[in-house]
Write a structure and sequence with these properties.
The structure holds 2 protein chains of 2 kinds.
Chain A lengths: L2 H12 L2 H27 L5 H14 L2 H22 L11 H27 L2 H9 L4 H31 L11 H9 L5 H30 L1 H7 L1
Chain B lengths: L9 H9 L2 H27 L3 H16 L2 H16 L11 H27 L2 H9 L4 H31 L11 H11 L5 H38 L1
Helix pairs in contact in B: 1-8, 1-9, 2-3, 2-5, 3-5, 4-5, 5-7, 6-7, 7-9, 8-9
Classes of the chains: A mainly alpha, B mainly alpha.
Chain lengths: 234, 234
Amino acid sequence: MDFQFIAHAFPEICKAIPITLLMTFASAFFGWLLGLIVAMVRRSKVPVLSQIFAVLVSFNRSVPSIILLYIAYYVVPAAIYFYAKSIGKEIDVSVIPAVIYSIAALTLNQAAYASEIFRTSIDAVGEGQVEAALSVGMTKTQAMFRIIFPQALATAIPNLSGLFIGLIKDTSLGYYVGVYEITSTANIISMPTLNFIEAYIMTTIIYELLSFLFNRLFGAEEKHLTRFRARVTA
Amino acid sequence: MGITYDFASIPGLIVRILNALPVTLIILFSSLAISLGIGALVAAGSMGQKKGLQGFCRGWIAFMRGVPTLVMIFLLYLGLPQLLDPIGIHMSQWNKLFFIITTLSLTASANMAEMIRTSYLAVDKGQREAALSVGMTNSMAFKRIVFPQAFGIAIPMLGNNMVALFKETSLAFTIGILDILGRARSISSMSYGANKLEVYIASAIIYWIICVLIEQGTKALERSYTKGRKRATA
């Protein structure tokens, strides 16, 4: 163990944590929002759109994140370039940071998984709940937001927690497209002196701490969201 | 920035990339078998009476769930040889498949252990008691009564875990193995990277098809396996 290296590299690797967290939060936010929309569309069986989403979800769930990342890396800049050209502007797409592509790819991946989680957890709320809500004079939207969603979210939380931890781990793939998040920073720092073992042990510890932290947070949130259940059974 | 795509070349690329399918399958099935073995031991330990062993096994699951596969690859492929070199074990000439199979076996073992634990616990306790009461030994009760039922419960989870593991095999190209993705990248670099997007789409299609096959296979297995059982309970 080269402790001098550790002392020098640890703060450097820690500086990359915000990028990892940015990728995680951005992809989770956009992905889960998109996933909710996909789930609602597929549940209400909107013709055509519903089938298209089903195919896209299957694709996104089956293709390794790394390939999605590479495809986004080549498609997103081209799409932006052609779009800009079609409205009569020339833009230099090489200035767009790679983190954008990574977030785009991870967002689609998250949306696919989240939509399945939301679909099953909304289905898990009993039919009687909607009927009861409607019978006391709520509108359909009110029933959705006040009765269905809170219960569905409580069921979804454990799965969302797993999805989120998986996402933190997936951000390490940013290494391949040159995003300076934790893993690639560790890789770059350890290259000159070949201190791989030290660098990756530190990286592992950071990831473990992040997983542990978010696991706890989701656990606490689950307790908070399921408080209605305890009252019912008591 | 001139961009030209030749999407008509994708079917031809798929055929060329499929040459590497055996490598991916070797990685998949070896790590599947090993991770199931480790998972079974860890699951047994985490349900056992010994407090120390129980703590170790739970820690193992939490640890393996928190570390990204990519970091694990670097840790084993770059870090471990450095660690073992001073004590006379020189791993630099070892087959690269060893590293990727070890990595995937370790990271997947957590999910496998959880799968085995939950499906074992899902079998009603009375089943085992009934088996013992008719004079079966402990191991007979496990082999003939508990295991067949637990296996039926585990099939869907096994399918999911297999899909996840299959997707993770795509990281093998990181250390220069010519699996599906590695082969795709080498085809692309033979033409100086001109058809990068096309090869990634081609490999995405391959992964997609195989994942759908695994999913359908799992469903068929579940249907045929639980067929007689459902009838028995009715």
